[in-house]
Request: fold
Amino acid sequence: MPEVLLDVNSDGVALITLNRPEQNNSWTPELEGEFYEVLGAADRDPLVRVAVLTGAGRMFCPGAGGGRLEEIAESGIDYTGRPQFIRTLQFRKPLIAAINGGCAGVGFIQAMMCDVRFMASTARLSTAFARRGLPGEHAISWVLPRIVGVEHAMDLLLSARTVTADEALRIGLVSRVVELETLLPTAIDYARDIAANCAPEALAVIKQQVWTDLEAPLEESYERALRATEAASRSASFREGVTAFSERRPPNFPGLT
Reply:
């Protein structure tokens, strides 16, 4: 069985599932390789407009497991030839996390690199790194403060404590908390609405704007927005958006090439 599943529905929503339920979807180099192959395929597929990431079974992803930590403790980590995790941030389409269960370590990083996070009320989160003798991995020290601020990021990284769904919602780690049985349908409905009503080209540019502008001066961000808007105003997506609005019908935007 594949360790990462990809299912694209007719609405343009891709469901990406970490598929090692017997091992609680623990992260391995093999799963990592499959994950980035699937993510790349979804990025290239013009039929995919939005993606939802979740875990099979009762867990999202607790990080490394199945003896992997013991192997690392014996021989250390060698990242040579392995994909950079920032490729998750560089996925051009909206990526929605549906956190169905335990989420820690590398699993926590992948969830934080999604654009929007939905969480089951019974799920739990932890950075976990400090309690394993590790620093913040894969630029989580860059991503996390931009989601929840420096104070909360320091708290979560230094203590590596467990966070409930209610606290995750309160401090802004996640956008929605719902019951487990409604988690995936809720996330997919949200993705379906974006896929049906938002232009893929605009979504790709907006994602790039948000992450780029976090490090940019206001004037630079403003100028970049002007250039992007000028280009978009001449696009087929803009013409379709205006026409659909005027005709009071659902838009039929072209896919992302």
